[in-house]
Design goal:
By secondary structure, the protein is of the alpha+beta class. 35% of the residues lie in helices and 19% in strands. The chain has two domains: 9-201, NADH Oxidase, CATH 3.40.109; 202-232, no CATH class.
Length: 232
């Protein structure tokens, strides 16, 4: 098999804009005292954001029944296989907010403020993801783009982090993200996955029946879950 070597793109200068309105809405803060506390935590959080990202261009070598091979790495997933049915070029990525914010949250004695730091960090990471997604879509003239992340579905478990990280050699040196023994990313405010071109937006949430999930981006779709072969 011919070996393809693609240069890993590193994004260091990512601006995160997070308004008090968006943070307060997510935290369901309406009373004056609550809003003041959210504003204070937000003001402390923003200087701690250190967003960075890496991505590369990879190619689908083989499409198996319930798996795909990407640049020689095997990925076992019915859902990923179906999403890449008409796709040959994909974009593995890792994005992080850096360690400072979670370090601040870890030393916070107030449980409510600790929760505020965590939610604000998730919101900031989501904003970074949007910018990275736009960067890829614009650069490669993609009409639509969606992503899958290991661990977001039973069909694509956290163990798939290992082959994913092997597609991004040098990611730890580039942006400081590594996998621990449980294959969780450190810093914790990090996300990894594969972006792929799509005509219709895909969200893993559409295939997940879990009722209570703060990170839900789309409603559960039973018919779609049946179509993907992951109906519970």
């Amino acid at each position: 098999m011919e070996e393809r070597v693609e240069r890993m793109e590193i994004l260091n200068h990512i601006l995160v804009e997070l308004s008090i309105e968006k943070a307060a809405a997510k935290l369901h803060a309406q009373r004056t005292g609550d809003l003041e506390q959210v504003q204070r935590v937000l003001d402390e959080s923003v200087p701690l954001f250190a967003p960075k990202a890496v991505y590369t261009v990879s190619y689908v070598d083989e499409k198996q029944e319930d798996a795909v091979v990407i640049d020689g790495k095997h990925f076992q997933s019915k859902v990923l296989r179906k999403n890449l049915d008409e796709v040959n070029r994909v974009f593995p990525f890792v994005i992080t907010l850096g360690p400072a914010l979670e370090g601040k949250a870890d030393t916070c004695d107030d449980l409510l403020e600790k929760y505020y730091f965590d939610v604000i960090g998730n919101l900031a990471l989501l904003e970074v993801r949007k910018q990275v997604q736009k960067e890829i879509a614009d650069r490669y003239a993609l009409g639509g783009i969606s992503a899958m992340t290991p661990g977001s579905l039973t069909d694509w478990p956290i163990e798939e982090q290992k082959p994913l990280f092997s597609l991004l050699k040098g990611v730890t040196e580039a942006i400081g993200v590594r996998l621990n023994e449980s294959l969780l990313m450190l810093p914790r405010k990090s996300v990894s996955g594969i972006y792929f071109p799509t005509e219709t937006n895909f969200y893993s949430c559409q295939l997940c029946p879990r009722e209570r999930c703060e990170g839900r981006k789309a409603a559960y779709n039973r018919e779609l879950a049946e179509e993907y072969g992951v109906l519970k």
